[in-house]
Amino acid sequence: MTDFELIRxxxxxxxxxxxxxxxxxxxxxxxAPLRMVRDFVDSRRQWIADQQQRQAxxxxxxxxDGEVLAWRGESLQMxxxxxxxxxxxxxxxxxxxxxxxxxxxxVRTAVEGWMRRQAKPVFEDSIARQFDWFETxxxxxxxxxxxxxxxRWGSLSARGYINLNIALLHYxxxxxxxxxxxxxxxxxxxxxxxxFHALMDARMPDWRQRKAVLEQPLxxx
Length: 221
Known about the structure:
Blueprint: E1 5-9, E2 15-18, E3 24-29, H1 34-43, H2 45-57, E4 68-71, E5 74-82, E6 86-90, E7 93-98, H3 104-130, H4 132-136, E8 143-147, E9 154-156, E10 161-165, H5 173-185, H6 194-203, H7 207-213
Parallel strand pairs: 1-3, 5-7, 8-10
Antiparallel strand pairs: 2-3, 4-5, 6-7, 9-10
């Protein structure tokens, strides 16, 4: 029997996740019988094994001097030195100055803080460039929220928020634009039915190629 972490909530269905460290996590309704949860996990044993193997072989991001950071489809070599905290792009380098340059957590914290500051204007620009048609159709522009998400690139909430994964900054701008368009199309079609796909085809004919870029492995943070 596969070991798993069970999280109960007000959701209506079972959801299975394999985390970066290989941990199996199941999200289940509050009153779902434990036997049903176990049967669900057992029925997905091969999928779980495949995902755990994928996570185990996926390259990990190292936060050290000389390591490479994927940035908007390009590669930046990290130049990490001691100094007052500062992160800035300088040609092909990401100059990182921190108090403890040999401490990977310190470097990671500084770089991720810098990424979050870069994300808002970049993401807002993508939304603005693609929203005109939806505005003309009578939809209100959703409010941006930037998140770290394990299993999604983005989501659109019924409360008017568009949630985008900060990890999109590692990929080319065309991939970010695809995710934004995908979520904007949910303003009109909340499901992934024929109407949704027809709208995606109309608004972004090459969306499938853009989506494929997000399926290419990068260093895992």
